[in-house]
Design goal:
The complex is a heterodimer of chains A (about 140) and B (about 550).
Chain A lengths: L9 E5 L8 H12 L3 E4 L6 H10 L4 E6 L4 H14 L6 E6 L6 H6 L4 E3 L5 H11 L5
Parallel strand pairs in A: 1-2, 1-3, 3-4, 4-5
Chain B lengths: L4 H14 L24 H6 L4 H5 L15 H4 L3 E2 L2 E2 L4 H13 L5 E4 L2 H4 L23 H7 L10 E4 L4 H13 L10 E3 L4 H7 L6 H18 L3 E2 L1 E4 L1 H5 L4 H21 L4 H4 L3 E7 L3 H22 L5 H4 L3 E5 L12 H14 L4 E3 L12 H16 L14 H23 L3 H6 L2 H18 L27 H16 L2 H16 L5 H9 L4 H12 L9
Parallel strand pairs in B: 1-10, 2-3, 3-4, 4-5, 5-6, 7-8, 8-9, 9-10
Classes of the chains: A alpha/beta (about 140), B alpha/beta (about 550).
Chain lengths: ~140, ~550
């Protein structure tokens, strides 16, 4: 798939839980859009159920979960589980936010493809998505 | 005092003819906010825009308060050292409150957890995994009692950072004191309440904008009558800045929010002098030292002028903009975290030299987690070193008269008025928010800044420059997951012990009064006394007011 054809990478950028810190999520949504991807930003205060539904409805290739509230170990596995249950386990799940290094292995074990911590660049994220989803560089 | 024509020519000559021969480092010379900075500032810079020493600077403690709100400022009394704290259950937070007081902090500041901030009970489905994680869980007056156990609320001032459900938490605080025999008139402190900045930046709302504004008016009115020592609102720029705003946007949007609250209160018939003295503010102290100092000075001058000239306030206390400062969370790095101590120190110094009344310094581990005891002690010591070792508090407004600082202050003020005009054109701040204007400005500024970081036009030490590959891990605070179950037990105990019929009756009365114009503090206090929970009171009001969903712009 490439950004020049109808087969754009479709990404849902989501804000799970009660966390209202959306600065990063919005920057990433915009950067992905500028990079030619189809971006669906869910807005704030999404339940895992709402996020899974959006991902499936939008036929997304990937979902980025942005959490800065510390509730990631509850919310992320729930989203992963729901996607799996609804037959969407081929969706790439990435996480960003205030995620302690200690939690990253556990998240990856649960099916998260990558965790982007403070200081990550939008170029890295775009690059990661393109390579993980088999798009040309 | 205008510069002599010869000296003026000399300044021009220096800048236009001599200086260009100097080689400069290949970086952009602009503030963090992108405001261009000249190689040198002279009297000439002040003259060219008609800066008048008497009118624009004056004396500390006198209109327009550019040099400080009190004549003696920190020489008379140090700023309050007020560290934001809260996590887990009220027992853990009470312990942290006492630790901080023991180590020399002089006021309390309460951080509530996400469920409380969003008006949800700890046992609500949507609270799962969020209870006590970002702050302390408070569900009812019972929690308030434990939170302040052993702390004399008539002697210590307390700040509570809560907005959507602010009226409820204020009621809890009042009822808790009342049950100890302390009347609301004896309580000193602040509740954040600033709902406009929630829609703009912090995003912690429970009701739509207009009913939320009504509640703010109710709180201002109630406090004007019953709580003379209390600040019913802390008009905030901190969060606006953290969301990505420039210093100019932080200044403009904060003050415009404040003016909007003044309008709201005046429109419901309150005399401006009856409530304006108890309005307070809360600003960010970001890493660009002089820009921040200029921002605070401009804020004081603008506020004084607007209150006196636009609103006709007569009391000097109504013109005085008093503020709390927090060093910028967003400036902290996860990389090489000890370096954050330096950032916090510089930022704290800006707050102090900018004339803050109260200060929170971030801990070095806060890019990663809530602070450990060791980290927060260093943050507190940072303030104590500034206060007691550096000598900066020996005189008031030591930077006053600096060509650069005065010019930057003037420029910040002009930038704010530009924004005021744009917001007025949109029909005022509420309309501007509904049109997503400040939100879009902030999103653009945030994106632009990120681009500058990625291109290295802006440097962040340890992140895009001076990185190390083997970054040592630091211990961080782990929130005991058992506290969520403990809090559920607490709320269950509250529900079991109370008179359910009384709760229902108070909630029904609240709903009834919410349909009309009555001040809702009285019925909310009744709900609080009956041990209605935050979630129950919010839900009751949402039945009348509705809820809010944003249309995000990015």
């Amino acid at each position: 798939m490439s950004e020049d054809t109808d087969l754009k990478i479709r990404v849902v950028v989501a804000k799970p839980g009660l966390d209202g810190h959306d600065r990063g999520a919005k920057i990433i949504a915009r950067a992905l859009r500028d990079a030619g991807m189809e971006v669906i930003y869910t807005g704030l205060h999404q339940t895992p159920e709402q996020i899974a539904a959006t991902v499936i409805q939008e036929d997304a290739h990937a979902v980025g979960l942005s959490i800065l509230s510390g509730a990631h170990m509850t919310l992320v596995p729930k989203v992963v589980q729901l996607l799996r249950e609804q037959g969407a386990d081929d969706v790439l799940v990435t996480v960003g936010g205030t995620i302690p290094a200690d939690d990253i292995p556990a998240l990856k074990e649960q099916g998260v493809a990558e965790v982007f911590t403070p200081g990550a660049s939008t170029d890295d994220i775009v690059g990661f998505l393109r390579s993980a989803l088999g798009a040309p560089a | 005092m205008a510069i002599e024509p010869d000296a003026q020519r000399r300044a021009h000559q220096w800048l236009e003819e001599e200086y260009p021969h100097e080689s400069e480092r290949e970086v952009g010379f602009e503030t963090l906010s992108g405001h261009p900075v000249k190689p040198l500032y002279t009297q000439d810079d002040l003259d060219e825009t008609g800066h008048d020493r008497d009118r624009d600077e004056g004396f500390p403690g006198s209109y327009p308060f550019t040099r400080g709100v009190y004549p003696s400022m920190h020489r008379g009394r140090l700023w309050t050292m007020r560290q934001f704290a809260g996590f887990g259950t009220v027992e853990e937070t009470n312990e942290r409150f006492r630790y901080l007081l023991e180590h020399g902090q002089t006021g309390l500041s309460t951080a509530f957890d996400m469920p409380t901030l969003m008006g949800l009970d700890s046992d609500h489905q949507r609270s799962l995994g969020e209870v006590g994680v970002e702050g302390v869980a408070v569900d009812s007056v019972d929690d308030m009692e434990t939170l302040f156990s052993g702390i004399p609320v008539d002697e210590v001032t307390t700040s509570m950072t809560i907005n959507g459900p602010a009226a409820i938490l204020l009621a809890y605080y009042v009822v808790n004191a009342e049950e100890q025999g302390i009347g609301p008139e004896s309580l000193g402190g602040t509740i954040q309440t600033d709902i406009l900045k929630e829609y703009i930046a912090q995003k912690e709302w429970v009701f739509p904008i207009r009913p939320a504004m009504r509640l703010v008016g109710d709180m201002v009115e109630y406090c004007a009558a019953e709580m003379p020592r209390w600040h019913p609102i802390s008009i905030s720029g901190y969060h606006i800045r953290e969301a990505g705003a420039t210093a100019q946007q932080e200044l403009a949007f904060t003050l415009k929010d404040g003016l909007t609250y003044v309008e709201e209160a005046v429109e419901r018939g309150l005399d401006v002098d009856s409530f304006a003295p108890r309005l307070s503010f809360f600003f960010n102290a970001h890493i660009d030292f002089f820009e921040e100092i200029a921002k605070y000075r401009a804020a004081r001058r603008i506020w004084a002028r607007e209150l006196r000239e636009t609103f006709g306030a007569k009391k000097p206390e109504s013109w005085r903009m008093r503020f709390h400062t927090q060093t910028a969370g967003v400036s902290l790095t996860a990389q090489q975290p000890l370096v954050n101590i330096i950032r916090t120190t510089v930022e704290a110094l800006a707050g102090v030299l900018g004339g803050t009344q109260s200060l929170h310094t971030n801990s070095y581990d806060e890019a990663l987690a809530l602070p450990t005891e060791d980290a927060v002690r260093i943050a507190l010591r940072t303030q104590q070193v500034i206060a007691h070792e550096t000598g900066v508090t020996n005189t008031v407004d030591p930077l006053g008269g600096s060509y650069f600082v005065e010019k930057l202050t003037d420029e910040m003020e002009a930038a704010a008025y530009d924004y005021f005009a744009r917001i007025d054109e949109l029909g005022g701040m509420v309309r501007a928010i509904e049109e997503n204007f400040p939100q879009r400005e902030i999103a653009d500024a945030a994106f632009e800044y990120q681009a500058k970081l990625q291109s290295k036009e802006k440097i962040m030490v340890g992140v895009n420059e001076f990185e190390i590959s083997d970054d040592a891990r630091i211990p961080t605070l782990k929130i005991d997951p058992a506290h969520e179950a403990r809090q559920r037990e607490r709320i269950a105990a509250t529900r079991a012990a109370r008179d359910g019929a009384r709760v229902e009756a108070t909630l029904a009365e609240l709903r009834r009064r919410a349909e009309g114009d009555a001040n809702l503090m009285a019925p909310i206090l009744e709900c609080a006394r009956a041990r209605a929970t935050v979630g129950e009171i919010v839900a009751a009001l949402q039945e009348v007011f509705g809820t809010y969903t944003e249309t995000p712009v990015y």
